[in-house]
């Protein structure tokens, strides 16, 4: 699996990117034998189509990549990644691509080389791209590596990626980037006042833990909090089998913040980075927490448990309260938190919540630039009453089924104090293969955040 650009080479095959409306003009400028070859092959430059053009010696002289129309391109992204998967092995350099799309297409090409091959040989694209002129090749390679880390973690089943293995992945990343890491495990969680992390994870064979990674000694303080529920049975409110099948991905928030953390550290962003991951498995045993229990969180708020399947917000609450104690300039949480978010925006958009107008402006602009779509949902204050059960300060699973993603976000915000806060309720899974995004685990929102953070933090 190669997520690197090919070195510039004189013998790289030219790959001409041609839109349907430009095909006639392009062929009219070619030698007759090329124009005849294109016509006889029936090449129409449809989006994602390819054509190899031989030279007089029978070797590939050039390749053509169909770029469709503006209308067809608007319905997707990373279009040249589809081309990469259909070209034979070799090195290619782009000709005729709009420079404004070069970074997106180059990243997509890199990501077409990703395959999750831990358990079975796979066949990622083997065509390698010479970095187009004007793109930051090093940055794109770092981003691709961060995305690959996120995908690998999400795709790995819980038998091989429980809380202990997630801790190991954090330690490995910290070692590579020179970060410090502290892990609080098992009974020490109670001694250090992380009661809800302990309660959610205590029924599992692997002890629950709070992973705390720090990097950087100067600049604004940025804290990332990722939900690390390595498997979610639903607890005593057991999920049906159909709902449990993908629960290995319930640590997708942790995987995504680790991918983002890799990008930040590898690129040397001048921030004081902190990553907090409550890593647990929500299992079923005699000591599992129960519906009707009332828990006291790290910040002293009491929480009535009306559904043990709403556990992600519980472990995040302790981690957010801990993060807020460090007075960061910005705190961001990422979590595969609610099915309501999927119903609202589907699997391709990363919904987020914030009251920071500067964050909204920067994030929306960045998301469009880097082809990482996001969608803002509201911290709708009138819904606060829905998460207040009366018997305790908060309800972890309000009845009624309305506004589930919003009420979950409001719940989390209760643990952030006065810290500037943004929350992402992501899916972390691509249900249907698409260019540069095979079926399986996928990062959402990380690239948009990476591009937006310098503006938000005043770097």
User: What is the CATH H-level superfamily of the largest domain?
Assistant: Zn peptidases
Number of strands: 19
Biggest sheet statistics: 9 strands, mixed
- What is the gyration radius calculated from CA atoms? 24 Å
3D structure, described in words:
The protein has helices spanning about 25-30, 30-40, 70-75, 80-85, 100-110, 135-155, 165-175, 190, 195-200, 240-245, 250-265, 310-325, 340-345, 355-370, 405-415, 445-455, and strands spanning about 15-20, 50-55, 60-65, 90-95, 125-130, 180-185, 210-215, 220-225, 230, 270-280, 295, 300-305, 330-335, 350-355, 375, 395, 420-425, 430, 440. The radius of gyration is 24 Å and the shape is elongated. With about 450 residues, the chain is an alpha/beta fold. It has 2 domains: about 15-125, Leucine Aminopeptidase, subunit E, domain 1 (3-Layer(aba) Sandwich); about 140-455, 3-Layer(aba) Sandwich (Aminopeptidase), CATH 3.40.630.10. The chain is about 35% helix and about 20% strand. The strands form 4 sheets. Strands 6, 7, 8, 9, 10, 13, 14, 15 and 17 form a 9-stranded mixed beta sheet that branches. Strands 2-3-1-4-5 form a 5-stranded mixed beta sheet, sandwiched between helices. A 3-stranded mixed beta sheet has the order 11-12-16, with helices on one face. The mean pLDDT is about 95. The longest helix is centred in the first third of the chain and has 19 residues, at about 135-155. The chain starts with 12 loop residues before the first strand and ends with a helix. It is built from 16 helices and 19 strands. Its EC number is 3.4.11.1. One of its GO terms (molecular function) is metalloaminopeptidase activity. It is an enzyme of class 3 (hydrolase). One of its GO terms (cellular component) is cytoplasm.
């Amino acid at each position: 699996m190669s997520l690197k650009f090919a070195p510039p080479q004189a013998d790289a095959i030219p790959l001409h990117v041609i839109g349907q409306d430009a095909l006639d003009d392009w062929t009219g400028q070619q030698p007759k034998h090329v124009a005849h070859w294109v016509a006889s092959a029936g090449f129409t430059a449809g989006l994602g189509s390819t054509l190899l053009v031989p030279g007089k010696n029978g070797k590939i002289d050039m390749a053509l990549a169909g770029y469709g129309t503006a209308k067809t391109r608007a319905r997707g992204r990373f279009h040249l990644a589809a081309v990469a998967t259909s070209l034979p092995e070799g090195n290619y350099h782009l000709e005729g691509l709009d420079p404004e799309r070069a970074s997106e297409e180059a990243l997509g090409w890199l990501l077409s080389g990703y395959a999750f091959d831990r358990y079975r040989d796979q066949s990622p694209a083997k065509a390698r791209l010479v970095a187009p002129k004007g793109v930051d090749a090093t940055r794109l390679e770092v981003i691709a590596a961060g995305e690959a880390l996120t995908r690998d973690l999400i795709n790995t089943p819980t038998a091989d990626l429980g809380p202990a293995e997630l801790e190991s992945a954090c330690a490995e990343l910290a070692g590579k980037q020179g970060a410090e890491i502290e892990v609080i495990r098992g009974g020490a969680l109670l001694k250090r006042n992380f009661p809800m992390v302990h309660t959610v994870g205590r029924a599992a064979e692997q002890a629950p833990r709070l992973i705390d990674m720090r990097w950087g000694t100067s600049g604004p303080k940025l804290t990332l909090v990722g939900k690390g529920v390595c498997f979610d049975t639903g607890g005593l409110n057991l999920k049906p089998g159909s709902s449990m099948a993908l629960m290995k991905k319930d640590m997708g928030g942790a995987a995504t913040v680790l991918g983002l953390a890799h990008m930040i550290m590898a690129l040397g962003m001048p921030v004081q980075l902190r990553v907090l991951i409550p890593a647990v498995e929500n299992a079923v045993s005699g000591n599992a927490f129960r519906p009707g229990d009332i828990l006291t969180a790290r910040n002293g708020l009491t929480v009535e448990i009306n559904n043990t399947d709403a556990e992600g917000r519980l472990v995040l609450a302790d981690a957010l309260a801990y993060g807020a104690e460090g007075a960061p300039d910005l705190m961001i949480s990422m979590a595969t938190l609610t099915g309501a978010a999927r119903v609202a925006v589907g699997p391709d958009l990363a919904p987020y919540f914030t009251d920071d107008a500067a964050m909204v402006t920067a994030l929306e602009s960045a998301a469009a630039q880097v082809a990482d779509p996001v969608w803002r949902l509201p911290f709708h204050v009138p819904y606060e009453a829905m998460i207040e059960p009366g018997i305790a300060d908060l309800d972890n699973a309000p009845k009624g089924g309305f506004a589930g993603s919003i009420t979950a976000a409001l719940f989390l915000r209760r643990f952030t104090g006065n810290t500037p806060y943004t929350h992402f309720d992501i899916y972390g899974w691509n249900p249907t293969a698409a260019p540069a995004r095979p079926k399986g685990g996928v990062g959402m929102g990380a690239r948009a955040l990476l591009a937006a953070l310098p503006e938000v933090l005043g770097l």
